[in-house]
Write a structure and sequence with these properties.
single chain, DUF1877 family protein
């Protein structure tokens, strides 16, 4: 489980990779979270919001790692365009339903995430994605 999770906007993979060692700074639009597995989360979110199976998302090599190694220090990965579109286009009720389903999936694995917290996380990431898209940027995640 990650200690620090920061979703952030960046113009491209090269710019996002610059944050590998330190994480996104104050000049970067970001969202700080913690204590959940963001790699697993974005796979589950994509499955829940797009109707793709978890296996299909993983087989598509999503999420795409930009730099670092999972479980070995810091990591930066990109949110897929499919997930970004699904998050940006989702109505509030769709996000709430997906957040509830995500909380249930995590509970099945023994990880308790309160439904309201799950909803806040997904809604905040969706808002960040919407803002980034309006600026022609992608959304990435830095994990430490």
């Amino acid at each position: 489980m990650s200690i620090i999770v920061k979703f952030f906007a960046a113009p491209d993979d090269t710019a996002a990779a610059l944050y590998l060692g330190t994480g996104p700074g104050q000049g970067c639009e970001s969202l700080s979270l913690g204590n959940f597995d963001p790699l697993g989360a974005v796979v589950e979110w994509q499955s829940l919001l797009t109707g793709s199976s978890l296996e299909d998302v993983v087989e598509a090599d999503e999420p795409r790692v930009i730099g670092g190694e999972e479980g070995d220090g810091c990591l930066v990965f990109a949110i897929s365009s499919d997930l970004a579109t699904a998050l940006a286009d989702a109505e509030g009720s769709t996000l709430r339903d997906a957040a509830d389903a995500w909380a249930r999936l995590r509970a099945e694995e023994g990880e308790i995430i309160d439904g309201e917290i799950a909803d806040a996380i997904m809604s905040d990431v969706a808002a960040l994605v919407g803002s980034a898209r309006r600026q022609g940027q992608g959304v990435y995640c830095w994990v430490a």
